[in-house]
Amino acid sequence: MTPPGSRAAQAMPLRKLAAEKGLVYGTTISAAQISTDHEFVDLVLQQVGLVVAENDMKWQDMNRGRPGKDDYGAADTVAAFGIENDLALRGHNLLWYYRTPTWFFDLATRRDQERAVVEHIQRLAGRYRGMVHSWDVVNEPIEPKDGRPDGLRTAVFVETLGPEYLDLAYRVARETDPTARLVVNEYDVELDTPDHEARRTTLLNLLERMRRSGTPVDVVGIQAHLCCAGGPPFSASRLRRFLADVAGLGLTIQITELDVTDENAPADLAERDQLVADTYSRFLDAALDEAAVKMVVTWGLSDRHSWIARRETNESKWRSDGVPSRPLPFDADLKAKLACEAIANAFVHAPQRVAG
Ligand code: G3I
């Protein structure tokens, strides 16, 4: 076993250190990166055991403006890349309020919307049947602020299809690909604030309700988009309790979109990198204590390709001084950072678990 903090730990690819503990380490990729950024692809193949399409499998990104008119080209490229390189593949995502084709909103009847949802899940999950480790079936289904008693997000699906759209989506996903683990993927459930607490309670209630109804759900995805300075407080014990509650429902857990923004951190590079690395350590040391946590995915591997570093995808976390953000394990020149060491050590410190 690799000793903590050792040169060996730093030299070992993250995927190997994770695998030693029964964990899978993965990251995002795109068809564009696969075909244009070869040195980045080499780093991905060196460091990860799993890939997930950052955008290429999202309904609106694939759809060409009409029901059933989906271009799977980019999604196929990511899937083939995973299969050819013996990497696990995460599916992101089958339904997401934020990337649903605009024509869907024009469907007037429940029957039309239901058919569109069912056919989309059957086509997309069917296309990669048996190849996908886990699917985010519904991404971000809760929003307590919308004021529903069940805390569900009102946008897009609930209004016409009712809360049972979730049961429909998970049931059809299971029928279409019985081998894929089915995930409910959420954000803002990691920190020690009343909002995050309300979201944790809402999510647990939803999962209990789904389990009670016999709806197939296997995994909770915790996005973990964190920040290293000026953000809400973090409580390791609060997070551990939540993870234990999820595990208590017989579900496993995946950290699905981990990154650490630095918009409020000092510009000084060494100081900023240390703050980012400390945030990775604090979160992973707490999360990986839970044996039901089976996977860690960073929402990017290198600062060269991060949604945080692109103004059009990230107005809120943009550094006002215009200095490039450094949220990920490797810098824009693909050099390992303190954050990479922090993740490596968290894997080395983590208790052993059964892979899952
Ligand atoms: O592909 C179009 C391109 O044709 C067009 O020229 C360009 C101009 O705006 O937009 C491109 O689409 C962008 C797409 O990323 C691909 O780059 C969208 O505008 C942009 O909104 C989209 O941002 C993605 C965002 O999800 C919305 O789908 C980010 O890259 C992606 O990192 C982000 O990831 C989400 C997870 O899926 C869910 N959880 C939160 C996470 C961060 O927001």
Number of helices: 13
Distinct ligands, ions and cofactors found in the model: ligand G3I
Mean pLDDT, to the nearest integer, reads 95
Structural class by secondary-structure content: alpha/beta
Question: Roughly what percent helix?
Answer: 25-40%
Shape label: globular
Strand residue content: 15-25%
The unreliable regions are none
Report the order of strands and helices: HHEHHEHHEHEHHEHEEHEHEH
Structure description:
The chain is of the alpha/beta class. Helices cover 39% and strands 15% of the residues. The chain has an eight-stranded parallel barrel with strand order 1-2-3-4-5-6-8-9, surrounded by five helices. Helix 7 (110-127) packs parallel to helix 9 (165-176) and helix 12 (269-287) packs parallel to helix 13. It is globular, with a radius of gyration of 20 Å. Bound molecules: ligand G3I. Ligand G3I binds next to loops.
